[in-house]
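Researcher: Quick sanity check before group meeting.
Model: Go ahead. Protein one:
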Amino acid sequence: MPEILNVRVEQQLNEVGDEVSAIIAVIRPILYGLLHALKQEVVREVGGYAEVKLFMLPRLYRPGDGDCGICFEYAVHDAIRRRDQPIIEKVNDSMRRYCRVPGQDTSSILFGAEKSGAIQLLETAENLLTDDSRLLTGEQAQPIKLRRYINMLSAAFKKPTTRLALPYSISGLWKADLFLGMRDSDRWVGTTVKINPRHLEGAKGLRIAIVPSQQGRNDRIQVDHGKNLVVCPLPYDGAFMELFYVAWGIVQQFIAADAKLPREVSLPIASHRMVAKLLEDRREFPLIDIIESLAPLAQPELLNSAEAQDRIDTLGDVTPDLTTVIAPVSREIV
């Protein structure tokens, strides 16, 4: 079922500087995203967006209900669609040399955007999957027809019992973030995207792992035989991507603490508590005013914000819970 997903692209302009000012720079668009992801009837009831005060957010915001999420994999997906040459070259090398994916027309399918936001998406604006689409798993067997199992993979997000019904060769494919492949050959590989390489996990059906390049380290494509993954470092600023994790965590803890400074066990790092305290001091003010007031405290020219809409297909007869995605796009490191 076609739906529209609101995407707020946060494009990195400069290197991450002072931690606190950088976190504030990132928290501003997160707060904006949360505000505009609230259900329209709720916003109208309080008198419009300008009247939504920060202390109201824990009462108005319901995770998974008009939710806002962060979708790191969108940056990779979008770069491939835009034919970003450095990204395409690395991805093609991973697929052709290590996964033996034939073809020339590289493409990407965004699968399961922000799974923690309880949404199952298959971004198929151009109807990329066909009845002949095959998934290459690296197993010595006939490649499976991917389209046949899409709904089952979607259900496996939430239902462990469904995972047991998947063929053994793709029993972990529900963990995929993207399907990378070649449109002309109609061959695809399950792909996981991780900001921190230490968080990589192998799973049956996954073949490629995309991570940011790490400064001072070898950025060549490597095979992790233990996890059965082809690890493909892309020229992204890992520190910038990690920053979004930190800022998102601070906001979530702040909301869970009723828009007050969370307990130290929930937010133990001093710099993170400093940012949460700045928010607590402003809890009686409208969110729109708070976002504006934090601008002088934010790292200047760290981000450029842009809004877009993407057509998605939901899996099955579900209505998307996630309506807004914040997509951090780091600068490419050369």
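Researcher: Fine. The other one?
Model: Protein two, sequence then structure:
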Amino acid sequence: MNFQANFVLVLGLICGLGFAEQEERVSQEECRRMQNVSGKALSTDVNDVQVNTKCCVPHAECKSRRPLEGKSVGWFYDTNQQACSMHRLGESCNLTPNHFLSCVLCEKTCLGLEAEKAQERCGHYE
């Protein structure tokens, strides 16, 4: 590659990094406020862990409980439990960013946990 091609490549990489989506995190309490959740959360091992804001929106609302073909279970971050919880998906669900295909992925994304700690918290669920 010549200098000009290298320069364009490097410039593209630098500019691309500036537009990368930043992961914003908030306290458990602020996350609960964002979800309009009242009451007291359970005391857990993640009380002081910051939560990814994409997990602070309500989980999927489903108008129908008729199961979807294939996987009919999803996971969402539950601010009351301060953990990821399972929910059944129906045919007409309005999925939100607070929807995950596995418990481990939910815990890693929402709480920023390492895979081993997320697996420990999820138990036999993956």
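Researcher: One line on it for the slide.
Model: The longest strand covers residues 73-78.
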